[in-house]
């Protein structure tokens, strides 16, 4: 042990610069880690102080109020801009779960959907879609099925169903497809427009009532004609506004689902139904997915090459430094001992 300590003292005395560099590096690492902890604690204290939370060990809480600094001390009172009072105000309340403003219970939402389906038979699919719509309180709005090639039909079907059953009908229609090529759902909030139209309608009816009262009191022919013209105009505005309101109400209460149907030709080989086009589409989709994944990996690799090079350089530098230290240590201590 004494021999090792003697050699260590000799090593330190002969390599003071190296030992100093190592000690400085250790101290810097420690300070870096400790500094982050101190910074985190300071940020937490500031965060809690901003919300009026009483912190142990912090006697006063500094807040900004009315353009001046206010120092709260719950034992001695408070002071603001140098004026001290014996009555301390309540600290600002902090609610960790602030209440969310309530949304109107009668929001007017127009919700429509579109589907593009691959089916075995367009005719059968259209019939099933109609039955789904009728069973959910809806109806067929339009249907267009046509033969695109010999024995192959395609087309489109639109159904109007109650908005409350929109999700149920969408899921039911998708189940009849061999494959869902794409789907989309569009929602539009028309609450503000609906409220504005109702306000306009109320004003128009009030105006109509005024003209009716004037009409009762009118005596001269020209006055009667003038009031009748204005009354006709306001009644026209009332009818147009009512029409817009009714249209919005129908769109809100009844959703539209448009379905495009595509049937693929069936190829029978020795009595077995074969859908080569479906297989080709699935293979092409799989190829695109794999190709996109490879390109993503290639992009990530290209941008990470500098990082890989830097890591390799650091590893080589560390290995070289260790090798130099080992060689030096061997020459300094082991070789002289063997020589003796």
Cα-atom radius of gyration? 41 Å
Q: Which blocks of ≥5 consecutive residues have pLDDT under 50?
A: 33-104
SSE order = HHEEEEEHEEHEHHEEEH
What fraction strand? 15-25%
Residue-averaged pLDDT, rounded?
A: 74
Major β-sheet strand ordering? 6-7-9-5-8
Query: Which fold name is given in CATH as the topology of the largest domain?
Result: Alpha-Beta Plaits
- The strand count comes to 11
Q: In oligomeric terms, what are we looking at?
A: single chain
Specify the CATH architecture of the largest domain. 2-Layer Sandwich
Number of domains: 5
SS content category: alpha+beta
Shape: elongated
CATH first level of the largest domain: Alpha Beta
Largest β-sheet summary: 5 strands, mixed
Helix count, per DSSP? 7
Helix content: 55-70%
Measure the end-to-end span.
20 Å
Entry summary:
With 340 residues, the chain is α+β, with helices and mostly antiparallel strands. It is 58% helix and 23% strand. The strands form three sheets. A five-stranded mixed β-sheet has the order 6-7-9-5-8.
Brief descriptors of the model:
single chain; 340 residues; alpha+beta; Alpha-Beta Plaits; 5 domains; 5-stranded mixed sheet; 4-stranded antiparallel sheet; 7 helices; 11 strands; elongated; transmembrane; transmembrane helix; DUF4349; DUF4349 domain-containing protein
Could you describe the 3D structure shown?
- By secondary structure, this protein is of the alpha+beta class.
- It has five domains: 2-47; 51-85, no CATH class; 109-191 and 255-267, Alpha-Beta Plaits (2-Layer Sandwich), CATH 3.30.70; 196-251; 268-340.
- The chain has seven helices and eleven strands.
- It has a five-stranded mixed beta sheet. The chain has a four-stranded antiparallel beta sheet with strand order 1-2-3-4, with no helix packed on it. A two-stranded antiparallel sheet has the order 10-11.
- The longest helix is centred in the C-terminal third of the chain and has 64 residues, at 276-339.
- It starts with a helix and ends with a helix.
- Residues 33-104 have low confidence and may be disordered.
- The chain crosses the membrane at residues 18-38, 309-329.
- It holds the Pfam family DUF4349.
């Amino acid at each position: 042990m004494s021999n090792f300590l003697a050699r260590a003292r000799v090593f330190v005395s002969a390599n003071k610069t190296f030992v100093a560099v190592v000690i400085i590096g250790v101290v810097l690492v420690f300070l870096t880690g400790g500094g982050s902890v101190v910074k985190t604690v300071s940020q937490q204290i500031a965060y809690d102080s901003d919300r009026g939370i009483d912190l142990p060990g912090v006697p006063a809480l500094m807040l900004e109020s009315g353009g001046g600094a206010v120092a709260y001390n719950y034992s001695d009172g408070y002071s603001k801009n140098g004026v001290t009072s014996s009555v301390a105000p309540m600290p600002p309340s902090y609610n960790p779960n602030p209440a969310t403003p309530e949304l109107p219970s009668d929001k007017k939402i127009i919700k429509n959907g579109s589907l593009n389906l691959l089916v075995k038979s367009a005719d059968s699919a259209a019939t099933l879609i109609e039955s789904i719509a009728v069973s959910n309180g809806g109806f067929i709005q339009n249907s267009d099925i046509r033969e695109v090639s010999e024995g192959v039909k395609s087309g489109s079907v639109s159904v109007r169903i109650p908005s409350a059953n929109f999700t149920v009908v969408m899921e039911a229609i998708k189940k009849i497809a061999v494959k869902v090529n794409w789907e989309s759902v569009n929602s539009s909030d028309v609450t503000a427009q609906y409220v504005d139209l109702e306000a306009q309608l109320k004003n128009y009816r009030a105006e109509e009532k005024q003209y009716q009262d004037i009409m009762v009191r009118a005596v001269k022919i020209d006055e009667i004609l003038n009031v009748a013209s204005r009354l006709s105009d306001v009644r026209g505005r009332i009818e147009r506004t009512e029409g817009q309101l009714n249209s919005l109400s129908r769109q809100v209460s009844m959703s539209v689902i448009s379905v495009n149907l595509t049937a693929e030709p069936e190829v029978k080989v020795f009595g077995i139904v074969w859908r080569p086009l479906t297989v080709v589409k699935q293979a092409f989709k799989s190829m695109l997915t794999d190709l996109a994944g490879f390109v993503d990996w290639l992009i990530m690799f290209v941008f990470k090459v500098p990082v890989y090079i830097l890591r390799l350089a650091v590893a080589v530098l560390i290995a070289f430094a260790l090798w130099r230290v080992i060689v030096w240590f061997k020459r300094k201590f082991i070789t002289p001992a063997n020589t003796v």
